[in-house]
Write a structure and sequence with these properties.
With 389 residues, this protein is mainly β. It has 7 helices and 20 strands. A hairpin with a 4-residue loop joins strand 18 (354-364) and strand 19. The radius of gyration is 25 Å and the shape is globular.
């Protein structure tokens, strides 16, 4: 999440992002350099620490304690305690002396919910205290939700992990100028895993690459403006031999050689290469926008026209519009057009839009972002609306 987008709100309004970041390291006495803390944000966190959240915001069956399990996510834990999981930083922000970093919650830690004077706060059980008798444990999960440092992830990494490399939005010029596959091994039509492919273009000193094909424009559902180009992910490749370009038009080019290391599709001549970026398995936390926000679904990722829970969609808002990784957004189902058969005139009616689900933004580009459908009732399609929750 971009530090430049963080800001404190006036007293009385508790921004989830501000409260979250400020619970990070105040107790430790020093700010994490990845999450700088301003004086205004520190003040906001202190306000949250004194207030807590209203009991009315707690989930109906919120437990008194919960022992963090391997397989938990911050979203899971939030739903356990709160009606609105994206408000969880307000719950964490209250105990700055114990919860040093809500991004770094580990299996085995015991979370204790305390209720007093109409408000709720959350604390960690004292070291050595052990789990209380009424500890609540979530059901075991097959998937692993730990970051490399052992901390609990925000949402299931198995759902978004592949898209951190695969879901990419290019500009038209960027993809047109990218290195390209010019031939495959021994004249094969396609290159499979373990086979060589031959590439021309500026590799920029990189050695590991993603392969893409068939860039298609992402069009704004309202304005029909091109927001970027989504290319189909083919696989990955590694540079194994450097070629050379001719000194003049009469020379002979020797292409670079790459070996296909993984494959979603078999590589073809014309596929484009882009360097593999650093893996972004950071614990960017769920939080609601701190200002009104709305937009539309641009497309569903993949070949389908409809998307359901745990699938990915592109939305027509990006960094230019203030979108941040970790934003939680509300999905809306457009009201149907019906005929009133009771008034004798058969008047046309448009039913109100209905809240339909929740999105979690995990990749942000300039004018478009990718979001995971965390929950939904009806299938999601291009043109569906989203707002702040």
């Amino acid at each position: 999440m971009s530090p430049s987008r963080r800001r404190a709100l006036p007293s009385g309004r508790v921004p989830a992002l501000g409260a979250l970041l400020l619970g990070l390291s105040l107790a430790a006495g020093a700010a994490d350099p990845r999450y700088p803390i301003t004086a205004a944000q520190r003040h906001t966190a202190q306000e949250v620490a004194q207030a807590g959240v209203p009991l009315s915001e707690l989930a109906p069956n919120a437990p008194d304690t919960h022992t963090v399990q391997r397989g938990d996510t911050l979203w899971d834990i939030s739903k356990l305690f709160l009606k609105s999981p994206w408000r969880w930083p307000e719950l964490w922000g209250m105990n700055l002396q114990q919860i040093r970093n809500p991004h770094l919650i580990y299996p085995g830690q015991v979370l204790v919910l305390e209720r007093a004077n109409g408000r709720a706060t959350l604390r960690l059980a004292q070291q050595g205290q052990g789990a209380p008798n009424n500890t609540v444990k979530l059901e075991p999960r097959v998937r692993s939700e730990l970051l490399p440092n052992g901390a609990v992830a925000s949402i299931p990494l198995n759902l978004i992990g592949p898209f951190l490399n695969e879901a990419v939005v290019f500009s038209a010029d960027e993809l047109a100028k990218a290195p390209r596959v010019v031939a495959t091994q021994e004249g094969h039509v396609m290159a499979q895993v373990g086979e060589n492919a031959y590439v021309r273009g500026d590799l920029g000193g990189a050695r590991d690459f993603r392969l893409f094909r068939e860039a298609t424009p992402l069009l704004d559902p309202v304005t029909r403006e091109t927001l970027g180009y989504e290319a189909r992910f083919v696989g990955t490749a590694e540079l194994v031999r450097t070629g050379s370009e001719p000194a003049d038009d009469k020379g002979v080019a020797v292409p670079d050689t790459v070996v296909i290391t993984s494959s979603r599709l078999e590589s073809l001549v014309g596929d484009r290469l882009a360097p593999v970026p650093p893996r972004e398995l950071t614990a960017y936390a769920p939080h609601a926008p701190d200002a009104p926000l709305e937009g539309q679904i641009v497309s569903t990722y993949g070949d389908g026209r409809l998307a359901g829970q745990n699938q990915v969609v592109a939305i027509n808002r990006g960094a230019r519009d203030g979108i941040e990784r970790g934003y939680v957004l509300a999905l809306w189902h457009a009201g149907e057009t019906k005929v009133d058969g009771t008034d004798g005139k058969r008047t046309l009616m448009r039913l109100p839009d209905e809240r339909d689900g929740t999105l979690f933004v995990f990749r942000v580009f300039d004018r478009v972002s990718y979001a995971l459908i965390v929950a939904v009732k009806e299938p999601v399609k291009a043109g569906d609306k989203f707002t702040q929750p």
